[in-house]
Amino acid sequence: MGYWIVIEYLSAAPVRATWLAHPAWMTALARLHQLPLEVFAGLQAHYRPRWDEALVDDVLALIAPPHRSQLRTHLAALEEELDQLQRQERPISGDPNPANWGLRADGTAVLYDWERAGFGPPAFDLAITIPGLANAAAARQVAQVYLAAAGVWSQGASVACLTREILVCKVWVVVEFMATVTRQRLALPSAYDELWRSIPDWVATLV
């Protein structure tokens, strides 16, 4: 068995002002999500986002004690929606964050870093493309551009429904990241302390 590598020169990276609902990203993700599950059959390990109580416990370790009970209650209120999302199985990138994209000269997008390629809800990928903590307006913009890019495959899909799924998945993404910080004892810049303080109120707005 031989090995080969393809190297491609990319002339540009998306500028920050274009990150939200970038049309080329939405087109690339819509194509990925429409592929059969067998597309990742050759992977030794498939990434699958998972939600459980252990995840919540690890998150609460980063939250000030007075706010832990409130956050646990609000996360519990999302469990039914999260359970439904975990049942969606489509090929996903697992990490299409804004830093993982390049652009060809013709404007088409290239996605780097496929370490977390696997299966999950398309909204999980879409949530990761949104910089910072998503609000309803940002999620709706992503939903609209994505469904337009998905074309016939998205027929019958609701912008409102996908917007909600993106918001719930954004909570999922943030919680997963926070749990990783706790479990791996990652040393992060002090700016993250302010982010952790904002999490309970942000989740409350989505519940």
Structure description:
The protein has about 210 residues and is mostly helical. A hairpin with a 5-residue loop joins β2 and β3. The relative contact order is 0.19.
Task: Note the main attributes of this structure.
6% strand, 4 strands, 207 residues, 8 helices
Characterize this entry briefly.
By secondary structure, this protein is mainly α.
What's the SSE blueprint?
Blueprint lengths: L22 H12 L18 H8 L4 H13 L1 H8 L3 E3 L8 E3 L5 E3 L6 E3 L1 H8 L6 H15 L8 H26 L6 H16 L1
Antiparallel strand pairs: 1-4, 2-3
Helix pairs in contact: 1-5, 1-6, 2-7, 3-8, 5-7, 6-7
Q: Which strands sit side by side, in order, in the main sheet? A: 1-4
Q: How big is the Rg?
A: 18 Å
Report the helical percentage.
40-55%
- What low-confidence regions span 5 or more consecutive residues with pLDDT below 50? none
The biggest beta sheet is recorded as: 2 strands, antiparallel
Give the strand content.
5-15%
Distance between the termini: 52 Å
Specify the number of helices: 8
Mean pLDDT: 93
How many β strands by DSSP?
A: 4
By secondary-structure content and strand pairing, the structural class works out as mainly alpha
